[in-house]
Design brief:
mainly alpha; two-stranded parallel ribbon; 3 helices; 2 strands; elongated
Length: 94
């Protein structure tokens, strides 16, 4: 139950607190590009954190998507006690 509450709060934070209103539409070629990151298991105390964030930024910079979607397990489950803090750390980059 606790995990469900954390997940629900995290979703609300991401939708309400971090979404920037924008009208999405296809470009002149009739294209719409989506980049999805899933199950990144973010751990800002891990030595791979900088590499992960740089890789994410490189994909976004190279692909220049119209929409970036973050799905799956964003935070390493070992951090359940401070999930919201770790989730906010992870999504600030997006």
């Amino acid at each position: 139950m606790k995990r469900i509450l954390f997940a629900t709060a995290a979703i609300l934070i991401s939708i309400v607190g971090y979404a920037s209103p924008r009208t999405l539409s296809v470009n002149d070629k009739g294209e719409f590009k989506i980049v999805q990151f899933s199950n990144i298991f973010m751990d800002s105390s891990n030595t791979n954190y900088a590499v992960t964030m740089m890789s994410i930024q490189n994909v976004i910079d190279l692909e220049m998507p119209d929409l970036v979607v973050l799905t799956g397990d964003t935070v390493d489950p070992r951090f359940e006690e401070n999930y919201l803090e770790k989730f906010e750390d992870a999504i600030q980059y997006f």
